[in-house]
Design brief:
Strand order of the largest sheet: 1-2
Helix content: 55-70%
Largest sheet: 2 strands, antiparallel
Number of strands: 4
Shape: elongated
Structural class: mainly alpha
Strand content: under 5%
Oligomer: single chain
Radius of gyration: 32 Å
Length: 501
């Protein structure tokens, strides 16, 4: 073919062309058939190909697509070849002859075809992740609303910190999840078809027509950008990596709080496993599976970046094939992690009493006590902080001290430091030590006061609904584009008297 007079070296065939052919036959051929159909419709409508020639090619295209849908293998590699496209094109040539059969490739290259396939595959995978992400987000927000007033301890550095609610925790996680999902939406939806090898074409093609028949928002304006750039793949992988890291952090907390040491959470038997040796074990392995799947996009991101590094800004195997190949497994792993996380949150059983009991025994209201001294008695916060710290050092028992004991101990410390200038009230101390009162008071700064959390959730729910509607509209737009392409093909075939089944 072209200026070549020899078949590929057998080692190239064994190591490169044959394995890639097998993958492309399964993963690329469905997109290639659709790209051909749209390209032929455009060539006919622009008068670049005679309608009769285009209709003949479209008839073969339709038959090939039908045979493939029926499970038939429509292309078999000959003993020597250089990839799927050349073998696939022979289907047209063998059926219609070299003049008509080879006409479909006018005004395009494998470069812009491959770039178009990559974006279409990415888009389908992205929509699947976003649909699962919308379901996860709705599940998390629903759980957060149900537990917007369920007290629990907040933690910093693995130590009990201040009172919060399970709903407030989930609202924080949901906020980060939403940002990652927003980053994923709409990052690939431009068509490279028509860019040729990267330097355009002299044929008066209509790139916007083919873009619309694929459901793209439009064409990539610059032909070199269309075939040389895979930055969208890096952007998708980066957003998937961030999403995955969030899921690992969430699953780590859930597994920690589900351990016997805490007992805040539990899952039904159909979501846990046991030990091969220890019969008492209820292991929430699925949370470990989430972490294993969720981090895969980060590794794929590094692989894509290294494969692009120091490549020329033009079409190349490293950029066009190697750098995009990590995208498909990353999308699959991310979707798995998102779906598993949604399952875990839908089925979680929350032990509110255990959460409350832990909270009350963990001295998490000491910050509120220092705040009370500063707000009610005018102490500088650092002085109040030191006074409460000294009280805790002197506290004689591991049991939480009573309000009376706290008032007495703090009064003694303040008498020593402030010369008896202030008198503490036991009822006020009791309110400061009440975890629920602390939570209700934390209504500023995005804190866990139930009303504040419900307000946060209302905003997140609206944003979630917008995202779900955007993704649904994207999916519907692709379905409309597919139907439009079918209509245009059908019209052209009818015009030429060749309507198929």
């Amino acid at each position: 073919m072209g200026c070549l007079t020899a078949a590929p070296h057998p080692l190239l065939l064994d190591l490169l062309y044959a394995p890639q052919f097998a993958k492309d036959r399964e993963e690329v051929l469905p997109w290639l058939l659709r790209i051909d159909a749209a390209h032929l419709v455009m060539l006919a409508e622009r008068g670049i190909l005679p309608q009769e020639t285009a209709a003949g090619l479209l008839q073969v295209n339709r038959e090939l697509a039908a045979r493939r849908r029926a499970g038939e293998s429509i292309v078999e590699p000959p003993p020597v070849h250089r990839g799927l496209y050349m073998v696939y094109e022979r289907c047209y040539v063998d059926r219609l002859g070299p003049e008509a059969g080879g006409a479909a490739h006018v005004a395009r290259s494998r470069n812009d075809i491959n770039a178009t396939v990559a974006r279409m595959r990415s888009r389908d995978g992205l929509i699947a992740v976003l649909e699962a992400g919308g379901e996860l987000l709705a599940t998390a927000l629903g759980l957060a609303r149900r537990h917007s007033a369920t007290p629990m301890s907040g933690f910093t550095h693995f130590q009990p910190a201040q009172p919060t609610t399970f709903g407030h925790y989930l609202a924080g996680v949901a906020s980060e999840l939403l940002r990652s999902l927003d980053q994923l939406a709409g990052s690939v939806n431009r068509s490279p078809l028509g860019a040729g090898a990267g330097l355009g074409t002299s044929f008066p093609i209509d790139q916007e027509l083919t873009a619309s028949l694929f459901g793209f928002d439009g064409a990539v304006p610059n032909s070199l950008d269309a075939v040389a750039s895979r930055d969208y793949a890096v952007q998708v992988l980066a957003a998937l990596s961030i999403l995955g890291i969030t899921l690992t952090r969430l699953s780590f907390d859930l597994q920690t709080w589900g351990s016997v040491a805490y007992g805040f959470l539990r899952w039904p038997d159909h979501l846990v496993s046991t030990s091969s040796m220890m019969p008492q074990k209820r292991n929430a392995f699925v949370l470990e599976n989430i972490r294993g799947q969720a981090v895969k996009p980060a590794g794929k991101l590094v692989a894509a970046l290294l494969r692009m590094k120091s490549t020329p800004f033009s079409n190349s195997v490293e950029v066009g094939s190697e750098a995009t190949s990590p995208l498909w497994p990353a999308l699959g792993s991310a979707r798995t992690a998102v779906q598993l996380t949604g399952l875990v949150l839908r089925e979680v059983e929350v032990d509110a009493a255990r959460m409350r009991g832990f909270l009350e025994g963990a001295e998490t209201t000491m910050t509120a006590l220092a705040d009370h001294l500063a707000a009610r008695h005018g102490l500088p916060f650092r002085t109040a902080h030191e006074a409460v710290g000294r009280f805790l050092q002197r506290a004689p028992s591991a049991e939480p001290p009573s309000a009376a004991a706290v008032r007495e101990g703090l009064q003694q410390i303040l008498d020593e430091t402030a010369g008896g200038a202030m008198v503490l009230d036991e009822a006020e101390i009791a309110r400061a030590l009440d975890p629920v009162a602390c939570i209700e008071a934390a209504s500023h700064g995005g804190g866990p006061a139930p009303d504040a959390v419900r307000s946060q959730l209302a905003n997140l729910e609206r944003a979630c609904q917008d995202l779900v509607a955007q993704v649904a509209a994207w999916r519907q737009g692709l379905e409309r584009a597919e139907a439009l392409l079918d209509e245009r093909v059908e019209f052209l075939l009818r015009e030429q008297g060749g309507a198929g089944e």
